[in-house]
Amino acid sequence: MANADIGIIGGTGVYDQSLLENIEQINIETPYGKPSDVATVGTFAGVKVAFIPRHGPKHTIPPHMINYRANIHAFKELGVKWILAPQAVGSLQENYRPGELVFADQFIDRTWGRPKTFYDGPKVCHISVAEPFCKDLRKMLADKARELEYGMHDNGTYVCIQGPRFSTKAESKVFQQWNGHVIGMTAVPECVLAREAEICYASIGMVTDYDVWKEHAVSIEEILKVMGENEGKVKNLIKEIIPKIPEVLGERKCECATALQGALIGGEE
């Protein structure tokens, strides 16, 4: 099986296959079933990269039905050490504006019924997610986005809702009161499973619009326009950052690399 250093999980809008050389399509069967799609593995600027479309090749898998465990396990099987996770998000705060990027450092989980661990027994994993996103990878992305003069926020709390429906106004206002900054449907359990797999994970939040708390009608045309602009920024950010990640973060001194130490109890010795 081919290997990769960096995994990208997201929509096809942020993935340009023409950037990769020596492409392989790899069908991976995991202990948790099939990933959302085959893994596309290739080389960019000398770095091996793997891509999986989170919602499937034609965006047919809703957020609550994504096989998050299979997706992350597939990256683990490929040897991925860093995951870049572009995600469309709505804004919960006035100063987190449509068109900006957000590199979240915290989350609030409002999902249910999604398998959120690889350890269903007899081993139990009490993984620490006090800092759920990789500090080093997030800082690197934020520094590069700042250098590129993109509107961005280097931190924020991501409220992850179940979906596929959007929030009510009452819910949206509660999330504001909880000091949530952006809202989406996919960061959890994705980032938690990446931590259990000891893979560095960073969310690249693409703010498409204000959530319903603002009571501002937004047309689909406006959202698609902003999303298209954001995808262009993220594509460029990814192109800029990929060659530097193994060079700068290669030794992986972050907590992600050793997250399982002291986290497992029970089962066979």
Description:
The protein has 269 residues and is of the alpha/beta class. It has a single domain, classed as Nucleoside phosphorylase domain (Rossmann fold, 3-Layer(aba) Sandwich), CATH 3.40.50.1580. 26% of the residues lie in helices and 25% in strands. The chain is built from 6 helices and 13 strands. The protein has helices at residues 68-77, 135-147, 169-177, 187-196, 220-241, 245-249; strands at residues 6-10, 21-26, 39-44, 47-53, 82-91, 101-102, 106-110, 124-125, 152-153, 157-161, 182-184, 200-210, 264-265. Strands 1, 2, 3, 4, 5, 6, 7, 9, 10, 11 and 12 form an 11-stranded mixed sheet that branches. The protein has a two-stranded antiparallel sheet with strand order 8-13. A hairpin with a 2-residue loop joins strand 3 and strand 4 (47-53). The longest helix is centred in the last third of the chain and has 22 residues, at 220-241. The model has no long low-confidence stretch (mean pLDDT 93).
Helix-strand blueprint:
Elements: E1 6-10, E2 21-26, E3 39-44, E4 47-53, H1 68-77, E5 82-91, E6 101-102, E7 106-110, E8 124-125, H2 135-147, E9 152-153, E10 157-161, H3 169-177, E11 182-184, H4 187-196, E12 200-210, H5 220-241, H6 245-249, E13 264-265
**Biggest sheet record:** 11 strands, mixed
Helix and strand succession?
A: EEEEHEEEEHEEHEHEHHE
CATH homologous superfamily annotation: Nucleoside phosphorylase domain
**Gyration radius over CA:** 18 Å
Taking the alpha carbons of the first and last residues, their distance comes to 30 Å
Averaged pLDDT, please?
A: 93
Estimate the global geometry from the Cα principal axes. Answer: globular
